[in-house]
Amino acid sequence: MKSRIVVCAILFGSVAGAFSAVHGQRSEAVTESRTAVDPALTVKLPAPSGKFGIGRIGYEWTDASRPDAYSADPKMHRSLMVYLWYPSPPKAAGKTGSYLPGAMQMDSAPEIQPHVKEEFGDIWPMIVSGELKPHAIESAPLAKSPKAFPVVLLSHGAGGTGFEYTSLIEDLVSHGYVVAAIEHPDTALAVLFPDGKVFAHRQDPTPAGLTSEQRMQRMMAAAGLAISQGANDVVFVLNKLTELNHSGNPSFLLSGGLDLSRVAAVGHSAGGAFAARACQLDARIIACVSLDGSLPPASAFPEFPDKRGFQQPVLLLEVDHSGDRMPFSTEQYNEFLKKKDAELNLCPKGSYDVLLKSAGLFHGSFSDYPLLAANGRTSETTLALHNLRLTQSFTRAFLDKYLKDEEEPLLDGSKHDPEATVKQYGQ
After folding, report:
1. Range of the domain at 8
2. Which residues pair with 62 in a beta bridge?
3. Which run of H or E residues covers position 403?
4. What is the pLDDT of residues 219-244, one digit of tens each?
5. pLDDT tens digits, residue range 186-210?
6. Using alpha carbons only, how large is the chain's radius of gyration in Å?
7. How many domains does the structure of the chain reveal?
8. Which residues have a Cβ under 8 Å from the Cβ of 119 and sit 6 or more positions away?
9. Of 28, 186, 278, 292, which is least packed with CB atoms within 10 Å of its CB?
């Protein structure tokens, strides 16, 4: 039990990108290849592969049942920004949204600008100016057929933002999913709220003078708080969607359009831990996807004193990290693989571990980062797009299987992908 929490502490106990200390958030090859953006090259997001158009609308929701864990004001409650991406008619008219809402405000805030510039690198000016755009139309009408769409609750990684998964989100939406992308304050890189305030990723450096045991205890407490808070954010958003979907409130654009009998939680990196814990807590979620969110060298999933397991099938979609430089020994990693195998065997029938082995694939390949870092250069862009499609194909296959009851040859073995090892688990 202790070793499991230790890894969680490494994950959440340091500043932004703590998870990348284990998984390598940035590919060295991609990072070293960065140069100034060539104006002759074009940086753009891939066109979604499905038949639906993309709509998007943002909401601020406050959970009155939870105090703000990081505020000294006891009257403050947990507030979230949640962006709903949803299927719309293919040629819906309207204004295309910005890639990152609030980018201009973040760029003008001295305490935030260095962090967003570091995260997005040379592409940041294109984001601030609005030159880089998604395909989403702000407040577009909801598609009328089918009557209601399955829902995906999406959690980003530590020090990141849900908008960095725009390509994944838009591809899912184009195939008939509503994606509720949660901006988790304190975990997110920065979050803009409607009143104009921008909340930056919480920096919590360890005080000087602590013993090693005291440091570990402090990190363990922070880890448990972060995972619990992220998971409770997911459950709260599901509660809010349920309330609004059945309210008949015309101000809620998607009223009646959500099929809440078909809900999945998906998360990348630290967000994978949020999604996994939310699935342990809430049986309304019928499918769980962790994108490179395991916790080596201790466990595949977060574990809490209540020892809750999964009530729904799980997809653990991972990059092959066996050759990475890990902050632990080969023996520890091999032991982790045995533990992961045992944990997955306890999951419900129809759970999967999919190991991806494409060239150039790394922890950040589940997001837009490699594509943006390619700066339009042909060979790097081609590789980034290939890896995006690879990660998206398995994510969508799992969701299609459990939220749409479709047969999936990628998972059942009838369609072999040479860049993936697929293993099915469950009792």
Report:
1. 2-310
2. 79
3. helix 378-403
4. 767 777 889 999 999 999 999 999 99
5. 899 999 999 988 988 776 667 778 8
6. 20
7. 1
8. 159, 160, 189
9. 28
